[in-house]
Amino acid sequence: MSYTVTPIKKGMIRISKYETMSESYLERYGIISIPEKEEVKGVEISDGAITLPDGKRLEFTVRPETDDEFWADEINYQLEYFKEKIPSRNIEGRPGDEPFPDVEAIEARASTKKFGISFKINDDEKFYGLGEAGRDRIQHRGGSYQNWAVYQFDEVVIPLIYSNKNWGVFIAAQDRHFVDVDDHAKGKLTILGNLDELDVFVLYGDTMKDIIRLYTDISGKSMLLPKWAYGLTYIAQIHQNQFEILDDMMKFRQKHIPCDNVSLEPGWMTRFYDYSFEKEWDLKKFHIEAWMRKRSCRDSFLGVMRSFGFHVALWFCMNYDLCDLEESYITGERKIPAWYDHVKKFIDSGVDGMKIDPADMLMRIDPNKIYTNGKSELEMHNISQVLVMKQMHQGFAEQMNMRPYLHYSGGYTGQQKWGAATTGDNGGGVGSMIWLENLSMSGFMNSTVDMSVFSIPTIHFAMLAPWAHHNAWSGVRQPWYAGPENEEAYTFYARLRYSILPYMYSAAIECHETGVPMMRPMPLEFQNDESCSDLSLQYMLGAYILISAFTDTVYLPAGRWLDYWTNEEYMGPCTINSYIPPKGRGGAFFIKMGAIIPKWRDRDYVGQYSDEEIELHIYPCGKTEYIFREDDGESLDYIENNSCHTLIRCDETGGSVNIRIGKREGGYKNKTKNKTWLVKVHGTGKRAEVVCDEETAAVKMM
Fold this sequence. Notes:
The strands form six sheets. The protein has an eight-stranded parallel sheet with strand order 20-19-18-17-16-15-14-21, with helices on one face. The protein is 23% helix and 27% strand. Strand 31 and strand 32 form a beta hairpin. It is α/β, with parallel strands linked by helices. It is globular and about 70 Å long. It folds into three domains: 217 residues, Immunoglobulin-like (Sandwich), CATH 2.60.40.1760; 250 residues, TIM Barrel, CATH 3.20.20; 92 residues, Golgi alpha-mannosidase II (Immunoglobulin-like).
């Protein structure tokens, strides 16, 4: 088999089928973008080997299509997953009537196109990535995985696998394929599949964070949700009417439980689970007459919600050919209407966001369906998961000239630049926590779980995920019905989340700019600490906050750590074997000393007060620095990196603490002219001095 090895730029080498390589649908539909070639120094390429600038030699074998033994393994992989893990399902999740493709169909597909490549791996290497490939661990050596989106099994698939030795592989395949990490093929990282041509990118750098950055150079950096979307989203009970929902939301305000977004399930429609383009409000439940369907209408359900600081999102379902619109951008011809077109009227009426149910797009697959581009649903399945978010993002952005709030429980490579993701219908337990960590290790930031109010550990973790999402769609799942202790915990954690939102939103901007996620699994943040390599029940939120859940064991890496609940200080590295949080708290919350954490005053929703006043909570430990990032929170300007950076330094030397707040470098729409920094120094009796370089800023000590 002929192939070519092409350096693209520093840190990126492409291995692809020689000369016959055709444009993939990932490229054709703009899901990935290959950087322009640059001069690459320090890389040596020989037949079957790449020597990287640090001297590491990557030996690989490209498998010929005539290697019958190798491809027999591929068939066995497919049969295993067809039989055990991807039954066809209908919308309620029950097995469908039609069978999945039989053995002959699988073998016929496998005989058309094949690709396979193996890399020799060392005994001390550990591997990460692959999106939601596993919910039992974040380190993937010793397992084999399929990259194909399947509801509640592997919903957001990201074909990126990389080593703690700072190299990895992005697999630019669109159909189902498999990754074996020292499982069936010992001592090897093996990638194989069919209906695709060989096209992989070897990525290398100085750290694993470099691998994520390089991957997102190809697939796109994570989008920024509207700032309010990093507050709390509450999904209302599926059959409630407008007055029942308003009554619940007034309870949120009266009880001072912060919340910004209310999402309606399919009960808002005249026809339940309406897939058509004729969706309408059920006027018996939501009295939104035609004359009320404008954002300026104050006395409609949507207008009243907006007046109390709530945004409203709608649930949509689809089973639609999204490839036609993508082809029309290239050919200029449209065969069917664009799906987003029928959504516009709801956005015009005041709706601010959309949830796409997995339904048929993710749960049910028709092997006989052919799209308008001539490809089967089996071939386009992974691609369709991304096009859902891409087309809704682009439609909303064009219509409103604002960031959309979109989420979906499916996905494939590239989805991070167009939408957010939930791990669908799982209650937010330990498996979903590990899923979120695996997504973060794969360059996907805006992820969350369906929070259960009946578990304080779940409340603890889910309120401290990248975005918070309470799904009360069925039964009686309002926080005030979960019992006094759980309601208190829910309220406490919601207010805690909102207090640190400036810190979290700054981390979100950092992710968009650098690729480094807000949720940072321990091996990503502490790569050189072997004790962190397999830790999955704790993670870092940004650079300074450590969260654990579903365990009584907490590992603290080197440095000083402060228990946020008790103010007890620990010196790492150390393991706390019997950690018990205080009553009403669901896990550990530690501050890494040296931290600089921006906070807000107490509030009921994000936009209740301006951002002119920011609290700076400083935990001195030697010399540290932090960049506080901010922008307007709603426009699309962030795509061009229009944000404001403030460098803050803290130097604890001798008997004093010296703090320097730099100038607010950069601009954004409606940037506040004045800033008040409320500075509080924790954990020391030393004298603190603060210098601010911004002439228009005020500094006050707390």
